[in-house]
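Forgive a beginner's question, but might I ask you for the amino acids of a protein and the tokens describing how it folds?
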Amino acid sequence: MAHTTAGPVTGMVGPDGALTAEGERAAGVTTQTLRRLYELLVLCRRLDQEGLHLQRQGELGLWGPIAGHEAVQVGAALAMAPTDWIVPYYRDYGMAVTRGIDPAVAMTWFRGLTHGAWKPRDQRFGPLIISVGSQMPHAAGLALGCKLDKEATAVLVSSGEGATSTGDWHETMNYAGVFQLPLVILCENNQWAISVPMRKQVAGRIADRAAGYGFPGVRIDGTDVLTVYAMVRAAAERARAGDGPMLIESMSYRFLAHTTSDDPTRYRTEEEAEEWKRCDPVLRAEQRLKARNAFDEAYAQATRDAAEGAALRMRSDLLAAQADHPGAIFDHVFKNPPAAHLRERDVFLADIEPGGE
């Protein structure tokens, strides 16, 4: 029987989308974990700044800033168990770093050095996907495989709110509901699909769409890392227990441009961005730690220093990285490559290396 009621998971947040006091007690997130979340926020903020600098210096072909998204990416990725799968979208660099992928390795994709910077099986973390919404069916298939194999495994798939207007997103929602997949569907709603405001593409709340597909949905405060962590963890536990999928709409804001090819001043106001910056994810996490008497300037400085060191290492390692051999694109397609695939590879290599060098 499909589970369509909200239940205790969605009841953990109040009307503002943040954890209630009762929800925070029920979540039982330790101060140690909250500190880890804060440290990752600061790290991702600094790596994001370095990505922007590198692109402006001509070292990256493109960069998609994550400022404003740090809480949802860090909180969601850390909430998933190491045995769970994460299927990200193109802006989820912070998820990759949180999942344990080397920041420089993850950045090679934006430098044009590789078609696939990491092997998904190693961290159970899929590739960043540019084609809007196309990662959704991939995640549904992965979740179905886990269910058929009777694994206690949850799959998290993320997208922006723009992807919710694609057929792939709705087909995945329907499939997840019908087959009760162990899928956590995370919408990183940052208000803008490039230059299209949410009001011009979404009628009503995205979270409310879940009911039409037979499972619960909830809208949460995506600038509060504790709320994101607690809610995604609870949804993943629910999925592993066989209670089916859940939709989480995380409300935040993209502080900077859609990508470094974009000029946000052409379609939104500085006043709007400044209003959202009052809910800066890093500052929100500081407030959470201060409420637990677990934050002081010495700790903050040590965290910033560690992030600075990581950013400098990332820059150095990235600039020293070499491009994949073009033939590497053939290496990870099949476990047992068919003859036609091998012939195509050989023809390709002969074309680019006539002398066999």
Q: What stands out?
A: Confidence is low (pLDDT under 50) at residues 1-6. The beta strands are 85-87, 155-160, 183-189, 192-193, 196-197, 217-221, 246-251. The radius of gyration is 21 Å.
